[in-house]
Amino acid sequence: MNLGSPDSTSTKDVHRYLMQFLMDKRVIDYPWLFRKVLVGGVIVPFRAAKSAEAYATIWTKEGSPLIVLTGQLQEALQAEVEEPVVIAMRYGHPSMEEAYERLLQKMPGLEEVLAVPLYPHYAMASYETAVEYAKEIHRRKKYSFRLDFVKPFYNEPHYLRALSEHIRPYLVQEYDHILFSYHGVPARHLKKTDPTGHHCLQSAGCCETASPAHAFCYRHQCFTTTREIVGRLGIPAGKYSNSFQSRLGKGWLEPFTDIRLEEMPKEGVKRLLILCPAFVSDCLETLEEIAMRGKETFMLAGGEAYTMIPCLNTEPLWVEALAAWVRGYAEGSREMLL
After folding, report:
1. Does pLDDT of 93 surpass 90?
2. What pTM was estimated for this model as a whole?
3. Is 316 within the bounds of a domain?
4. What is the CATH number of the domain that holds 181?
């Protein structure tokens, strides 16, 4: 299960996609009427054409990079496991219902489905909405098969190994700093998903202080991924940092990636490596926002070298990690389940 994409780069298709995406109550968590006015009357009318232009800069002859890459991941995984593998998108096509029906066509006697939300970290606007969407379609259509979910895998050893080894070849080049740019979320989302009601963002060291909240805390999980990766790769303190991209409005997690890209050359960081660990498949936010606009921002601010490390996409060790989870599930292991 991945995020999704417009059907084409036409303003009409992008408008339709943005309406579905931004009207999700877990993405913009305001009351329905206010959300309808904000999204339908303010955000999308002004954003659709600009977003269509951005999609056009990354679109391939096969279509949306995210859809194409997720399809390639499906093919790579299918080559490793016996169970039928299909893809679904939270927004757009193929929908979750389409995915369920394809599975039933492949296996009419289907008894169990393992859904893998392709989000390493828990967030209302990504992992949670994907899970709830899959559950809703499952209930509405009264499917008889059991439905399970792989939990966020931000600290899972197979995933960390795949990501670490994917990054390692880039470290042979000279660089001043490596920036882990995670997708941003509103700070209020962390507080909403905090089961204790009094931990997240309540102290400067909340992400380092043990709490049940960490099972649902996007910020903590992002920081954990970075800490685990730099430890495996031996990246020294002071040579890396975290930031958050793609903000929409005020009150989002900081520091902001675009601001840091302007500031870093002035701080002596002239050669930058940047990656986006919140994504496993390259998409608009990595290819256009970071690889294109991010590079322009950094270089205009005085940077000299800028390298974006691609997402895992179809990295063999990443396919191997997914296959290990599928095999574990088939053998009765519930360790990776939500």
Report:
1. yes
2. 0.96
3. no
4. 3.40.50.1400
